[in-house]
Amino acid sequence: MFIFVVGLNHKSAPVEVREKLSFSGERVQEALTTLRAAAGIEGCCILSTCNRMEIYAACTDMEKGLASVKRLATGWANLPQEMFSRYFYVHTLYNAIRHLFRVAAGLDSMVLGETQILGQVRTAYQLACEEQVSNGIINTWFQQAITVGKRVRTETGIDQFPVSTSYTAVELAEQKLEGLAGRCALILGAGKMSELTLKHLLSHGVQKILVANRSLDKAQAMANSCGGEAIAYSALYERMAEADIVISCTAATHYVLQKHQVEAAMAQRQGQPMFLIDIAVPRDIDPQAGEVPGVHLYDIDDLQGVIDQNLEERRNAAAQAEKIIEFEISQFMRWLNSLFVVPTIVALKQKGEQIREKELARALSKVKHLSEKEKKLIGSLASSIVNQLLHDPITRLREHAASPDGHLYSEVLQNLFSLDVPGQRAKREKESPALHVVRRG
């Protein structure tokens, strides 16, 4: 049984191509059913996110399976087949295993070490099981990938270093305030960045959230999503005194908060500090506001320094993760190659025994005068010759079973001895197309 992955992601294809292959709901169910019914496919799974669409498959005939997936993928994207190589990548066997393990670990994501992808891999696998399109190899492959993803995050802590601006802003506020539970936060702006910041604040236990925006309707919609309170811009400077944290990200071209306005707010806080985090470009907060006693002001450059440091930490963690992945690949390859090796050894021994019995019967039929003892002696000799001839091929095959090329040795042996191994259709041409594809992997 062979495995491969065909896909495209944020590195290989532009968004206008990726969006054509964005599967969700009933569409992914239909795609899975169509894929499983395609020629050569024994098991499959589709991983579809905003940044990637990947088809994972197990097949008995690599050439036929790849052709089916290529035809379906280009058809779904409404692309001519000759455009396949421009946007899609293909990984087979060893490289396919590594790819899925790296995806699950967050090492192939737009943001190194991001956590969401592991849940997406798990959801994709669960759907394949529900639709009954997976098989034993797909099951083991994805189960181990999920285990790898968990292990990488547990042992390296790769996701413990925030690298998004909004998350870093909230993390910085939590560190400076020694916790956000029970705190009040004021968000200036109601755009995408503000929405992300709001989610991070809630996940860190902020008790009260105020949202201010020039469009009160937008502020109200955002506040309603979290049980917060929308405030009109006219009341902004009066209500700001309630906030322990002010995170600003508006589209204004001038300072939204001036020094004197911050001073007025601080006068009402009875010595309680206030953290101002400005993640807007151009800046929303007058830099001189940081001179007000009790005020701690951070801008996008301050955050970038933290992000750069955290990215370096994630790169170090990623190096550790690669070592974990290499070990897990070797374990999976040992199991996968055993699926090739054991049936091949059994088939080879059976063929040797059939030849021994056939030739022994032919020889004995021509010499009638032999005693039973002499017949047994000749039989033992025939068995010894067959066993010695097969000993080296079988020994070498077992030795290479755990290597990345273990399946190739099995295929070569199947072709050399014309073995018929169920589920592993050996080809009889000068060079097997399946082998050729694997080498290209």
From TrEMBL:
User: Could you tell me the Gene Ontology terms of the biological process aspect for this record?
Assistant: protoporphyrinogen IX biosynthetic process from glutamate
Its protein name is: Glutamyl-tRNA reductase
What is catalysed by this protein? (S)-4-amino-5-oxopentanoate + tRNA(Glu) + NADP(+) = L-glutamyl-tRNA(Glu) + NADPH + H(+)
What are the EC numbers? 1.2.1.70
Question: Extra info from the record?
Answer: During catalysis, the active site Cys acts as a nucleophile attacking the alpha-carbonyl group of tRNA-bound glutamate with the formation of a thioester intermediate between enzyme and glutamate, and the concomitant release of tRNA(Glu). The thioester intermediate is finally reduced by direct hydride transfer from NADPH, to form the product GSA.
List the InterPro entries: 4pyrrol_synth_GluRdtase (IPR000343), 4pyrrol_synth_GluRdtase_dimer (IPR015896), 4pyrrol_synth_GluRdtase_N (IPR015895), GluRdtase_CS (IPR018214), GluRdtase_dimer_dom_sf (IPR036453), GluRdtase_N_sf (IPR036343), NAD(P)-bd_dom_sf (IPR036291), Shikm_DH/Glu-tRNA_Rdtase (IPR006151)
Instruction: Write the lineage as a comma-separated list.
Output: Bacteria, Bacillati, Bacillota, Clostridia, Eubacteriales
Taking every annotated instance into account, which residue ranges of this chain make up the domain Quinate/shikimate 5-dehydrogenase/glutamyl-tRNA reductase?
Answer: 171-306
Please state what the annotation says regarding this protein's domains.
Answer: Possesses an unusual extended V-shaped dimeric structure with each monomer consisting of three distinct domains arranged along a curved 'spinal' alpha-helix. The N-terminal catalytic domain specifically recognizes the glutamate moiety of the substrate. The second domain is the NADPH-binding domain, and the third C-terminal domain is responsible for dimerization.
Q: Does the keyword NADP apply?
A: yes
**Any one GO molecular-function label of the UniProt entry:** glutamyl-tRNA reductase activity
Q: Site Important for activity: list residues.
A: H99
Query: Where does the chain bind NADP(+)?
Result: G189, A190, G191, K192, M193, S194
Start and end residues of each Tetrapyrrole biosynthesis glutamyl-tRNA reductase dimerisation domain: 320-419
Q: How does it assemble?
A: Homodimer.
